[in-house]
Structure formats: structure tokens, C-alpha cells
Amino acid sequence: MIIELCANPRYSRPVIDDVTEPAAADFELPRVLAALADRHRLATVQFVARTGESWCARVMQDIGLPMSKSTFSHHLRILREAGVVTKRTEGTKSYMCVRKADLDARFPGLIDSILNADAEMVS
Amino acid sequence: MIIELCANPRYSRPVIDDVTEPAAADFELPRVLAALADRHRLATVQFVARTGESWCARVMQDIGLPMSKSTFSHHLRILREAGVVTKRTEGTKSYMCVRKADLDARFPGLIDSILNADAEMVS
Lengths: 123, 123
Hints:
7 helices, homodimer
């Protein structure tokens, strides 16, 4: 939803964002693993971890995710609520970033092992 | 189901086991993560990785898993089909073991990072 609003400047009303991004101390390992246990979310995290903070709309495009923007927003919500990524809005664009430092602090080695695994196919 | 048969020698008919444990080369990271993304399965894997090959019925008891034997068998199936654990039957007892060498070979560091995380609460 957020992505759709951002992608269409005609609807530039304030973005309502009810997603809670947890503090690192509140991360739950099963929830982090569940967030990463989907091949599209996994490919997204692997891509963004390599490229650094990325414009959400471009992430979808560059990876070639076969889904609508609203579906991507749903996946983004799951990743944010687990603590895997954070989102920042600047003007009409949203950017996402992997919370690698927080994840490394809570679960040392987990994200590196996932990033070092072969990138998953998304098609 | 298998566990129930093993626990009751009166029903000592041949155990039908239709679970396919994949070769390490066929492991899929999203599937492994999904298998570990449940707090009861995660606690089981953390426990068995620490204790070594374990009698399935005792694993449930020692961790204090709040579930029926058939539910535990369902979780065991998910772990086996992802490649996280293997099961061996000896007489009327079933034993499970974490496939750490195979997991380390395919996803270096993944299982260690999960085992080094604080053991999850299961109650």
C-alpha cells in the first residue's frame, strides 16, 4: 500500500505506516527465520544486503519479483516486523535497508551464513 | 504416528515411513529456514544438536513440548523433509539426529548461529 502511494504522486496524502519495527533486544529468532523462509523475501534481503539501502520500487524491478506492489508491501511488512529490514521514506520514495548490525548483535553469524548461501532463484 | 507405534509394542506391525530425507545437494535454504522457524521445532533441534542422537519420545519429554505424539511426528516430518534431521529406527524406538555436517556443507555457519542463539522458551 505504501509503495503504491509513493509511486503515484497524485495521492500524496500523508503515508499511514502502522508497522512496528522492533528494537534489537526484542528480536525473536523463530520470527526472523520465518521472515527469511520465503524465497522472494530471501532474495530481497540478499539483494539489499549486497547493494545497501535501496529504493523499494527498484528492488522489485531489479530482482524481477513476480508480484504486485501491494504483495511486495506485504512481504516488506513481514521483514520489518521481524526486525530484518528497516524502511525510510524520503519525499515520495521509500527505501529499505537490512538491519545487519542489529541482527549480528542478536544472532551472530546468522545473516552472514544466509548471505553467503547461493542467491535463490525467484522466477 | 510413527512415534505412537514405537511407544506401544502391541502394535509392532512394520512402520510405514513415507518421509523422504533429501540429499544435502538438494537442500533448499527457504525450506530449511521454514523448518526452523517454529519455536517447538527450533527447541527440538537446539536440544538434539547439543545431546547428540536422541530417542524421539525422550526429546519431547526432556524439552517439555506441550503437544501430542502425533503433533510431534508432524514436526519431525517437516524437519526431516527439509534435511535438518534424520531419523533411525531400532527395534521399537525411533532416534533423531541433526544433520549438522550436511547443513554445514551446504550453508556454512547457519546451524552454528542458530545453536549459539539463546535456547528458545517452549512453554
